[in-house]
Design brief:
By secondary structure, the chain is of the alpha/beta class. It contains 15 helices and 21 strands.
């Protein structure tokens, strides 16, 4: 059975549109990797969607004076439209449809029926004034591990899970002046410690593409007993839990990733017209699927630890994800993107004003792969002009001078050079050392080399050949230029072409800021 790669980027919360921080993080990287795999003849599915079960939907709606359902409907359309505007080609885009809910409930019901979930008393902040337990986005305080300020559930700083009852000085996000107390509630949990050695063994074999921050977090988490993971919450927002012992509770949204990922695969295959679009077929242990996640660092625990534990709890029914490519925060003028403070650049707005290839190139060049990086309009204009637009247009003009003279011979030297070009780009696109930043560096270096090339008589075919190879290798990033200039975007393999027929090449339009 041939391997199919399933690429997943975690669904953003349906509490607003996508800003550049989202695009520069997991989405552009996932799209580029998927396009590269297709260009090299491999079978791939790319999936994401939106999540409406997060408590952040409720808190954002409260701040905006909207009903949560209205916010979800608006955000779902915005997210899908912005992905398309940025050229992120998604095979499966999931939402809050009944089929998704059925998949989540079916997954947790199987675990429950097999005795994998246990009823435990867990402490939560509680508001006597409202009679509500506070979890995740409803409550914030200090992380008990790294002391950073944030909401319950997951720490954006250290990546560890934060039990709501363990927050330092917890405050309600809806009413910070509301006096809180700790109160126990009986919830269903997955006893994570049972699966710690299984998770450790899995990452010892896989996860070679993990970046340092994620590797550090995983090592820290697995160095000590793993806390029980709540599968149900004593709140009303979310998917209702079907278990009588926790009547009135909902499924923890951070316990959804394994089931959501299974649904992603089925939906993606179905929309591609593939025969494997049946329930959980692509996730079965013998399915031959390679699962890869592109995700923000703060999603490490729910997708790489809790979800892997839940998959292990199925006793071999399902395969496990093999690779996780994380990113750090992408900042705006050296400060974190903030919708509430109006400190934000919306992805769709920028693509409407700036040629899409320039946006994709700059986001790739400044990708927050291992540390926080920064966006500014001035840098976008300067970097794209000097590193992309000017050298490409110079190279394209020189190719134009050779049109009408083909087919021209391509030397063995040039075919060998083309193979090295392909190798350099492949070293950036393959997962073991995946890096958008280095891919743009390779592209910049190659364009500069071509722009410096003083073409002597007899080298015209070599020059045009190497220009085409560079563009094919850059096509996963420069999607519009490649679509206009090339009959297809396949990346060459083997001995390469022996002749080339020069054709007029399109120019890139710069942006002055």
């Amino acid at each position: 059975m041939s391997e199919r790669t399933l690429i997943i980027s975690p669904a953003p919360t349906a509490n607003g549109d996508l800003h550049l921080g989202h695009l520069a993080g997991p989405f552009l990287a996932a799209d580029v990797h998927a396009r590269y795999l297709r260009a090299t003849g491999r079978d791939v599915l790319l999936a994401t969607g939106f999540q409406d079960t997060s408590t952040y939907v409720v808190t954002t709606a409260h701040r905006l004076g909207l009903e949560p359902a209205a916010l979800v409907a608006r955000s779902a359309e915005q997210i899908e439209s912005t992905l398309a505007a940025a050229g992120i080609e998604v095979d499966g885009y999931t939402g809050d449809e009944d089929r998704f809910v059925k998949t989540v409930l079916g997954f947790v019901e199987r675990l429950h029926a097999a005795g994998k979930l246990e009823l435990r008393a867990v402490k939560f902040p509680y508001s006597p004034a409202t009679g509500q337990y506070l979890v995740d986005g409803f409550v914030r305080g200090g992380c008990p591990l790294c002391l950073a300020e944030g909401c319950a559930g997951l720490c954006e700083s250290c990546g560890h899970p934060i039990a709501a009852g363990d927050l330092i000085d917890p405050k309600s996000t809806l009413d910070p002046d509301d006096p809180l107390e700790l109160r126990e509630a009986q919830v269903l949990v997955l006893p994570m410690e049972r699966y710690r050695e299984g998770i450790r063994a899995h990452f010892a074999e896989h996860g070679k593409a993990m970046r340092p921050h994620m590797a550090q977090a995983i090592r820290e988490m697995l160095s000590r007993p793993l806390p029980d993971y709540p599968v149900t919450y004593p709140i009303s927002w979310g998917i209702p839990a079907p278990f009588p012992e926790v009547a009135g509770q909902t499924i923890n949204p951070n316990a959804e990733p394994a089931a959501w990922s299974i649904y992603c695969a089925a939906l993606s295959a179905e929309r591609r017209g593939l025969p494997s679009a049946v329930d959980d077929e692509l996730w079965l242990a013998d399915a031959g699927t390679k699962v890869v996640y592109f995700l923000g660092f703060d999603n490490t625990y729910p997708f790489a630890v809790a979800a892997v534990a839940m998959l292990l709890a199925t006793d071999g029914r399902y395969l496990l994800p093999e690779e996780f490519i994380t990113n750090e925060f992408y900042e705006l003028d050296n400060s974190k993107f903030s919708t509430s403070r109006g400190h934000v650049v919306w992805g769709r707005d920028l693509v409407e004003r700036v040629p899409r290839d320039l946006v994709r190139f700059h986001l790739a060049a400044t990708s927050p792969e291992n540390q926080r990086t920064d966006f500014s309009h001035a840098a976008l204009a300067r970097v794209t002009s000097s590193r992309l637009v000017e050298p490409w247009n110079e190279v394209a003009a020189r190719v134009d001078g050779f049109t009408g003279r083909g087919p021209l011979p391509v030397s063995e030297r040039s075919r060998a050079a083309a193979a090295r070009i392909v190798e350099r780009f492949a070293a950036c696109y393959e997962l073991d050392c995946f890096s958008l930043t280095r891919a743009t560096e390779v592209l910049t270096d190659q364009l500069a080399r071509l722009a410096r090339w003083s073409v002597r008589p007899g080298e015209e075919g070599d020059f045009c050949h190497e220009v085409e190879v560079v563009l094919r290798c850059a096509a996963p990033i420069l999607i519009d230029l490649a679509a206009e200039a090339l009959p297809d975007t396949r990346i060459p393999t083997g001995a390469g072409a022996t002749t080339v027929t020069p054709a007029t090449l399109p120019r890139l339009t710069g942006w002055a800021g």
